[in-house]
Amino acid sequence: MSVSDALSRVLAMPRALAESLVARTRAFRGASQGSVSVELILTLPLLLWALAATVVFYDGYKTRYHAQMAAQTVADIMSRETDLFTANYIEGLNDVFDFLIDSRFPTRLRVSSVIWDSANERNRLQWSYATRDLSALPEDTFELMQAGDLETLMAEFGEDGSFTFAGAGAQMPVSDLPDRIPPVLPGEALLLVEAFALWEPFAQVGVGQLRFTPVVVVRPRFAPWINFEGQEPVYPEADYEIAWTGSGNEGLPDPTDPTPEPTNPPVANRTYSFDDGVTSGLSRSTITAGGPSGSYLGPFGTETWTTPVTVAVDLQADHATANIAFDLLILDTWDGYANQYILPRGDTFTILMNGVPLSVDPFINYSQAPYDNARVSTGYIGNSTYRVSMTRTRTGSSFAGGGSNDQLWRVTLTIDNAPRTFSLGLSAGVDSAISDESWGLDNLTITASNVGTGTAAPFVANAANLLTADPHNRFNRYSGCPEYRIAAPWLTMTRADLTTGITMQRQASGGTSLSSCPNTGGWGYANASPSLVLNYDNQNVTSTYNGLQIRLNDGNSGYTCDTTLIIRDPNGQWYFNDDYTGWNAGVRMTNPPSGQYVIFIGTYNRGSCNTNLTIDRWTR
Question: Region labeled Disordered — which residues (predicted)?
Answer without folding.
Answer: 245-272
